Amino acid sequence: VTGDIDLIHVPDPFAQEIAQGLGRPLPPPPARPASPSRSHRRATAAAAVCGAVLYEGAGLAFFKMRPDIRTTSTGLVALELLLPLAIAAAAMLVGTRRGQLGLGEPVARLAAWVLGTPLAFVLITLAAFPHDDDGAFWSRTKTCFLVTALLGAGPLMLAGLAFRNAFAAAAGWRTAAAGIASGALAAGTIALVCPDGGALHVLLGHGAMMVVMGLVGAGVLRTATRI
Amino acid sequence: MIATAWPRARGELTLWATIVQSAGSWAMSDLQEDTARAYPATTASDARSESSPVDTLSHVMDRYARGEDRAFDELYRLGAPRVRGFLLRLCGDLALADDLMQETFIRVHRARASFAMGAAALPWMLAIARNALRDHARRAQVRPSTRSADRAEAEPYQSEAPPDGRGDEVLAGHEMLAVVRGVLQELPVVQREAFVLLRFEGLSVSEAAQVLGATEGAVKVRAFRASEALRAALDHERRQRT
Questions:
Q1: In angstroms, rounded to a whole number, what is the distance separating the alpha carbons of residues A3 and A143?
Q2: Quick check: A20 and B48 in contact, CB under 8 A?
């Protein structure tokens, strides 16, 4: 901008006063309670990741592995599992990257990821998975949706704890990315539980939680994670 | 729209510069000297130079983030004047700016662990200061306290006239600054933030966009609208003089 319009010609109404110390000394430094250092935060983040993996493992043990895992097409199961996990990893990476100034990725890039990853999931699912329905679609989809919500709630809460006071700018987009990652992790886990591989079922019963948790992240976690 | 608006803005701002200069009061060199005294490093390139105070600030913040508690006093000494100036420009009230500066440093302390290794501390602190101001504005809107009501009625921060008076020139200069100050306070907060960061804090569009959590395009539009409002006010002032 400074190249296009000559902002330097706008006089700074406070420059002189600020240069002269504003006629008032700086207030004393505020009293401060104990706060975690960087190494503490790293340990917390590592604990949160381990906690999320254990939570998903416990969920898998509780809801039991799908019985047809050995007989179903390996490619489809792998895709159903790996696609959400790849989305989870990418969303987490883009949400937590430090960026050029340590304020995270630029908002345009964050927005592209946050909006683009669920869209990519929709397109790939519709293209790759079979479109068959045996009649009990809504009842099974509703059950899977609730189980996926349960599987995603743990990682989302852990993300809230790990990222408390973590984002100085663009907190909404970054917590949305954390929410998408939690939803995607849950979608990956439910793929090992649910034998229904129909495109619409995978989309609504498993993948919709990415969007839901992205919205929850942006709406609820934002306040806890913003500095 | 922006593409067509920018060249127009450029032309108008040239006119604007003439207006400012034709007031004859506040020579550009004076302004630049004042700015340089206030902020030893005011441009993005300055902020990246190795020996700048901003770089020292980042280094101290890095030490503090690693857990060196004693670094806080140095961090406060180096960072508080910048944060205070930024907040004063945004809110126009020194007492409020001081309160929010302290709130900012409490938040910096709480969140020190999230300061990225090797990152620039100043934009990070400015983003936190902006959050503190926004939270204050939100609280004041929901639950207006006696104190904030008093502040709303209080006169904005005014400095005393400089002792080395230059008669009409100094008076005209002060009037010009009062116009800019008044317009800045009346601007929507998103426009004021963008303008202050670009013009007075010396950040680039990309840096300001990251501090504000907005896209570069949005920051350009906000700064453009702010500069349009300032240009119109200064133009009006000039017409009244003549």
A1: 58
A2: no
Residue carrying the six token digits 């949005």: B218
pLDDT given at position B115: 92
Say which residue the tokens 């009061």 belong to.
Answer: B25
| Residue B25: φ, ψ to 5° | -100, -45
What count of other Cβ atoms lies within 10 Å of the Cβ of residue B233? 16
- Tell me the per-residue pLDDT of A33-57, one tens digit each, with 9 for 90 and over: 888 888 888 999 999 999 999 999 9
Cβ(B226)–Cβ(B195) below 8 Å: yes
Tell me how close the Cα of A214 comes to any Cα of chain B, in angstroms: 18
Q: Locate tokens 């706008």: which residue?
A: A10
With CA atoms as reference, report the closest residue to B196 among B184, B186, B183: B184
Distance CA A15, CA B225 (A): 22
Q: How far is CA A56 from the centre of its chain?
A: 16
Q: Are B213 and A168 in contact (CB under 8 A)?
A: no
Quick one: which of B125, B67, B68 has its CA closest to A42? B67
Read off the tokens for A128: 């790759």
Is the distance from CB of A44 to CB of A97 less than 8 angstroms? no
Q: Which residue of A has its CA nearest to B20?
A: A9
Amino acid at residue number B22: S
For residue B123, the chain A residues in CB contact (below 8 A) are 101-103
Nearest by CB to B207, which of A18, A101, A107?
A101
ipTM of the prediction: 0.83
